[in-house]
Amino acid sequence: MLSLESLDTEKRNINTMNLDELSTVEIIAKINQEDKKIADCVEPAIAEIGKATDFAVGSIKSGGRLIYMGAGTSGRLGILDASECPPTYGVPFDMVIGIIAGGDKAIRKAVEGAEDSKELAVKDLKKIGFNEKDTLVGLAASGRTPYVIGGLEYARSIGAKTAAISCVQGAKISDMADAKIEVIVGAEAVTGSTRMKAGTAQKMVLNMISTTAMVKIGKVYQNLMVDVATTNEKLKVRALNIVSEATGIEKESSKKLLEDSGYDVKVAIVMGLASVDASKARKTLEKNDLNVSATIKNLLMLNK
Among all residues, which ones are annotated catalytic? Predict the structure, then answer.
């Protein structure tokens, strides 16, 4: 019989033993006190998170992808993070992908038994053409979900880079991963409810991986999102604000830069800061892997 008692995520929290006797505000305060601990629990894992991120960047730059795989809450968090990358950073929808045990219907309704199948994980990875260029990040708060183990085993067998995110010490999924991310958040306010602290911790780690990866592939200049897809009026205004903020140029002139660039925010910023036309800005960006800072430095050096 499966034993869960030894898992960090299944232990009882001595700080919330009387949860059902408290008032609404007191319960919320208890949850808040537990939530305050999460960021400090993530900190010891930063080096391994960095390793996983470098794998992802290497995959993306070589034409591969970043794939998240999990079951239940963990799977849903991977899908959430993946789905937010295209609208935020203008990347293709297949660059960062989230896979959940049981398929898309499991996003809203649990699919019984799906997380217990290693074979299903392999089938799901093959369905998306997973290959050695990709990076697989397996998520399991308990660190022992068979579905995730199966996926990581398959990824390693074909030479792909792997990372594992769990909330227990010595997680089984860590044994199959090149980057072993273990965030020990301790007992949940409600025993075993890993959608709480464990879920928040996993979301924080995923934010770090995807955001840092986007910075490293040139989707951010300073701390500004510069691959905004100007598909509606609101996004055009956002693009204008970004160009004006990045260049220090007033709005009317920034609007002219945007129009001349074909509403390409990166090109407009380079035009404004390096005093070049759209063609020169675009060509130099391509030579510098679309990195705005490197492009501007390159152009300013040439102009000296």
Answer: 84, 115
